[in-house]
Amino acid sequence: MVALATCVFAVLVGFGHLARAYYTEEYRPQFHFSPEMNWMNDPNGLVYHDGEYHLFYQYNPNGTTWGFMSWGHAVSTDLVHWEHLPIALECESDSTGNVLEMFFSGSAVVDVDNTSGFAVKTKKGHTTPMVAIYTSNYPTAHTEPGGAVIREGQQSQSIAYSNDNGLSWTQYEGNPVIESPPPGYEDQWNQFRDPYVFWHKQTSKWIMVAFLAMKQKLLIYSSTNLKNWSLESLFGPENARFGQWECPSLFPLYVDGQISNQKWVLMMAINPGGLVPASGTQYIIGEFDGSTFVPDQADIYDPTQIPSGSIVFQDFESTTSTFEDLGWTATGDFVGLGPRQASTVDVWDIRGYLGTGVFTTYLFGDIATGTVTSPTFTITKDYISFMIAGGSYPYNPLTAGTPDDNQVSFSLVVNGEIVHSQTGGNSEALVWRSWNVAGYVGQDAHLVITDVNTGPFAHIHVDEIIFSDTPKDEANWVDYGPDYYAAVPFNGLPTGDRVAIGWMNNWAYAQNIPTTTWRSAMSIPRKMSLKTINNKLKLVQQPVSTLSSLYTRTLYSRTYKSLLSGQTNVPVPAPYNTRMKLTLKFSRGTGSQVGVILRSNSTNSQETVVGYDFLGQYVFVDRFKSGDNAFVTWQPNPYPGRFVATMPTKPTDLITLNIFLDSSSVEVFDGLGQVAITSQIFPLDDSADVKLYSVGGTARSVSVVVNGVKSAWT
User: Fold this and answer.
1) Which UniProt keywords apply (predicted)?
2) Could you give the residue numbers annotated as active site?
3) Quick check: helix, strand or coil at residue 273?
4) Is there a contact between 482 and 279 (Cβ–Cβ < 8 Å)?
5) H/E element, 244
């Protein structure tokens, strides 16, 4: 047994009263939550109680990078204005400074019926305890006060309680309450984390879901008192399965607003293995009976099965053939070569492929360069799907074909133009990706695999190219951008008012973003529901309505019966040209694309582009030119890119995009809430022009409305 001390080197004086000084730095969000100073990552312990939203979060009290993990704490009455409170759970060390326990991610509940026995008597009865359930991460071997013998690097589940509404906390003397993973998974003792707990009314039990991160395995426990837990069942892996599974949550939502019809949503973070390099968040819809989660079969995507009626264009199984034998044309180092037996590709862990053959540019290490082009074909199906892996070196139209070109990509070419492109996700695991090509049906096209890069991870694997009427999906993604991770909902809210918050960052570069006294912000809080769209049940999200309390009067409003090709200035006064809500509505005309350009200068050498592509049927955010990309000093650089969310529409549809621009971020939601894209941006100067644009012709029934968003910190 050892004496404990806090890991905190210095404590902020006047917590909650210095915001005016802190919240004016470059890139400081004005309507997103960020810590007063230092590092923040996952939202933890989101709970609503007595009219207050409690936001706990992973926090380093000693610096602006990850470490000394503790639970920060803030409260709000409206999810918009936040009051900073003292650190809730502080990292602990021994008398010599060895870190004994860090407080990793978890959840919080209000124990209304005092099932835990943690309440204390008062003159009016007794308190209502708030209980935090979290992962104890133990960097140093030691013996806990309760007698548990802890190994170096161990992860276990523990609890703490508060009888003053979260202002002060007492750790349970019997911690950890779940010391080790269940039988059969004992070797995962250092990868067992992120408990999310909620009250299950039907069984009158507390339910915990936690992950064996490296096994992609969800553990479901139950308890009557928050102290003693019984394993009920396991789930996974399913869908996106090649990265660490972290930060689960399990919660019910009404289907299409019908109180009598409810489904359960399992939401989880994945890192690496997201839709874009590194971090992402997926969800699975199903049923939960208090012990077992059963996914809807429509929400499970078997990677070995292709859609009915698919045409297999190329499966790369002819490993004794050259590309030329297969009708493809090779250049550079790929001339005379062909598909490879996947088992002979000498990379660390190539996996996920179908059959035995695969296309790869990893031939002599990463030094091979050139192109391989398919024969021309006529597009007859609405989707092209394929499996892909490798380094993230996307096609960039600004540099393609120049000495600065470093792409390693798989692209679709129609009429001499690249209309879709995909790169690897910095992984050797092949995953399914799809392009909507309905707008090109009847046209001739070809595919080209390009590798002009000899840098680290500069290779690509491709397999199983198919043409189909429906996409071949890997997973359901909560957000299609790079910067939405570890999202969890608030406990304590009614099913019809479910709200979640995500960490607005990405582990691929989180510790390097160019902020100063603080690092990281949270997403806009989002109200979630389930809605049937195009015959499929989807998780839909919209910013909470209380955000409107920050909106200014309408600063700009204009409609166009027909918006001509080109760019049109949208005058927005400072400071609201750097923080605004912009609502864009439009329908298809003769053009191929419509959207807005944000944080632009007069020459468009700096800009962030948000738009909709009518032919490709997708919403996108393009941050290739958004500003500072150089804070990532290694290759492949996971930061630059164009982030795409497929959203099929009909020519007569009136499409709505709600765009929220803050000092260093943009979040995009379509009108139905089926698509969300979250992206950080770091403009290099104060350029803040706003422009409306159309490409290749007109867009019809266009309207643009701009409201400024006032600071939540003044």
Assistant:
1) Hydrolase
2) 42
3) coil
4) yes
5) strand 244-255
Among all chains, which residue has been given the structure tokens 């997403």?
A: 523
- Chain length of the chain: 714
For the stretch 68-97, pLDDT in tens is 999 999 999 999 999 999 999 999 999 888
Phi, psi of 430 (to 5 degrees): -75, 130
Contact of 257 with 453, CB cutoff 8 Å = no
For 38, 335, 353, 355, 647, the CA distances from 317, given in Å and listed in that order, are: 52, 18, 11, 7, 32
Half-sphere exposure of 468 (CA within 13 A, CB side): 19
**Those residues with Cβ within 8 angstroms of residue 162's Cβ, 6 or more apart along the chain or in another chain:** 88, 129, 130, 131, 132, 168, 169, 170
| pLDDT for the residue 4 | 61
How far is the C-alpha of 1 from the C-alpha of 493, rounded, in Å?
Answer: 41
Tens of pLDDT, residues 545-597: 999 999 999 999 999 999 999 999 999 999 999 999 999 999 999 999 999 99
- Indicate the DSSP class of residue 201: T
Q: Which pLDDT score, from 0 to 100, does residue 14 have?
A: 40
**% of the chain at pLDDT higher than 90:** 93
H or E segment at 522? none
Say what the pLDDT of residue 13 is. 39
DSSP label of 655: E
* Beta pairing partners, 75: 54, 83
